[in-house]
Amino acid sequence: MKICYVADGTCIHTQRWVNYFAIKGHETHLICWKVMPGYESNVNIHLLTRLAPKIWTVSQYLSFLFWILQVRHLINRIKPDIVDGHFITVYGFLAACSGFHPLIVSAWGSDILIHPRRNFLFKAITEYALKRADVITCDSEVARDGLKRLGVKLGRIRVIFKGVDTKQFSWQQRNEELRTQLRISGAPTIVSIRNLEPIYNVEMLINAIPLVLKHTPEAKFVIAGDGKQRKYLENLAISLGISNCIRFIGWIPHSELPKYLASSDIYVSTSLSDTSHISLQEAMACQLAPVVTDIPANRAWIEDGENGFIVPINDIQMLADRIVYLISNRQLRSRFGKANRQIIQKKAEYDKEMAKMEIVYHDLLMKR
Question: Residue 79: which domain range?
Answer without folding.
Answer: 2-163+349-367
